[in-house]
Design goal:
By secondary structure, the protein is α/β, with parallel strands linked by helices. The protein contains 14 helices and 15 strands.
């Protein structure tokens, strides 16, 4: 789910082919006629129809995967042969059992089975509705309120290099308002899709925001126009793709994330911003039935994206936990299961992902920000009301929302600063691979030492412990990203 306050047919096929996409197995329009093998399984249809992620051995052909899904009483929505992951639906409650807990899982079913049916919100996100409180669109220049851009020297960097139009940043989120004047030029509709079935849908309604301002806020931080009005993003010269992976209940199911990452990989994007964690748990455990399916599917998708040159940037989350020791203190997840060292926040903890922590205006780790030595790669401003920089600013980050501008705090807000700097690096190093971009991102960061005192509420107790050296530690990783260094190779 988003980490701050709230995130067919012939036309689709033509759009997919236009960007070199390996065309997925078509969505079935009717339930296939049962084969003798299928009839032997005694398929039943009591409902509800649930969506599943299904793993196959690497190299499985599309027709083989679809045949097995059909034989086990399901219908294939899409099969991604690049990673041997399928998305399927079935009204038969035994569908997952036929594949086994190491191969098939329904996050949707897990959510439906929980007693708590209300819409979830992130642990430390601001409460209440997610509509703009910014007073509507205005021609006024509000860049003076962007303390966050000054902190990473983005205001100076864009005078040197605002980023290249050849660089596309995928915003995997709740959708981007492409009509916003600060974003209209940046959003590329031809590369934007909705992923809420697990299969990419290029229809504009599929990738536009509905109930959440989250994606639009993230997008503005990355690439809002440098036009003398409103705000300005870190890399106003690059393009954005709206890849909608947050549904109207605020969930990011694994099939949404896999779809988004695969779309980014096949569409030639250089950077993808992931200001969320994959549901249905904040921490997904590799050693637990069902959860290992989610973990493996997301891992394969990230790995493939990296191989295709996509740098994956993700938030560590707003739970304020040490992700290097997630099970310490007997923690339990949303379903009451004990969390241990096999449990990771996804996608931030997947190998090859740049994990981002958040700081407030005083350059101190925000109290809500999760952290961990060996987890956090870099840090960026995400805001913290306890480090408020001035009256009326709420200590948070100002950015675009549908209808205007608003403030928000969270690792969701820190992450797009990093994605913007990564886009600047991709603009100045057009041939860099994803691992090379990650190394460049780490190298340009300015080191931030562990604080001598991390008592945020003044009660005499440390609120978290920072492990590591000045050059690399659990609060700040390699340090604060620096947009000016990214476009000048470290020279002021």
């Amino acid at each position: 789910m988003p980490l701050a306050h709230h995130a067919r047919g012939a036309v689709a096929g033509a759009a997919l082919l236009a960007v070199g996409w390996l065309v997925p197995t078509p969505v079935a329009t009717a339930r296939p006629v049962p084969t003798s093998e299928q009839q032997a399984t005694n398929c039943v249809q009591p409902g509800p129809v649930l969506r599943y992620v299904v793993l196959f051995p690497r190299g499985t052909a599309p027709e083989t995967a679809e045949a097995e899904i059909t034989a086990k009483c399901g219908t294939t929505t899409v099969y991604y042969p690049q990673v041997a992951v399928a998305v399927a639906t079935s009204p038969d409650p035994a569908f997952g059992e036929r594949f086994g807990p190491a191969r098939a899982f329904s996050a949707q079913g897990t959510v439906l089975a929980r007693r708590e049916r209300t819409r979830r919100q992130d642990e430390t996100a601001p409460r209440g509705d997610s509509r703009s409180r910014g007073g509507g669109q205005s021609a006024a220049d509000r860049t003076a309120e962007q303390w966050d851009m000054a902190m990473i020297r983005a205001d100076r960097a864009r005078r040197v290099n605002p980023g290249s139009r050849d660089v596309v940043v995928g915003v995997l989120d709740s959708g981007i308002d492409a009509t916003h004047p600060d974003l209209a030029r940046a959003v590329d509709p031809s590369l934007s899709v909705g992923c809420l079935t697990g299969r990419p849908n290029p229809a504009p309604k599929a990738w536009a925001p509905t109930t959440s301002v989250h994606g639009t806020h993230v997008a503005g931080t990355i690439a809002a126009a440098d036009d003398g009005r409103g705000i300005t993003g870190v890399a106003p010269g690059v393009r954005l793709a709206s890849v909608k992976v947050v549904d109207d209940q605020g969930y990011i199911f694994p099939e949404y994330a896999v779809c988004g990452l695969l779309w980014a990989a096949e569409s030639g994007m250089r950077v993808v911003n992931n200001s969320y964690y994959v549901d249905p748990w904040m921490l997904t455990c590799r050693n637990r039935d069902g959860e290992r399916v989610v973990h493996e599917a997301v891992r394969r998708a990230v790995e493939y994206a990296n191989e295709r040159g996509v740098l994956v940037v993700a938030a560590t989350g707003n739970a304020g936990v040490d992700l290097s020791r997630p099970g310490r203190g007997g923690s339990v997840d949303e379903d009451g299961h004990r969390v241990d060292s096999s449990c990771d926040v996804l996608p931030a903890r997947v190998r090859g992902v740049v994990a981002v922590s958040s700081v407030g205006a005083k350059r101190l780790k925000a109290g809500y920000s999760s952290y961990g030595l060996g987890v956090v790669q870099v840090t960026a401003p995400g805001g913290d009301y306890r480090q408020e920089p001035g009256p009326g600013r709420e200590g948070c980050v100002l950015s675009t929302v549908p209808g205007g501008y608003d403030y928000s705090c969270g690792t969701s807000m820190a992450t797009p600063h990093v994605s913007g700097v990564a886009a600047l690096l991709a603009s100045t190093h057009p041939s860099a691979t994803a691992p090379q971009l990650a190394r460049l991102l780490n190298a340009q960061a300015r080191s931030v030492a562990c604080p001598a005192d991390y008592d945020l509420n003044g009660d005499g107790a440390q609120d978290a412990v920072c492990h590591g050296a000045t050059s690399y530690n659990g609060f700040y990783g390699h340090g604060m990203v620096d947009a000016l260094a990214a476009v000048t190779n470290g020279r002021d």
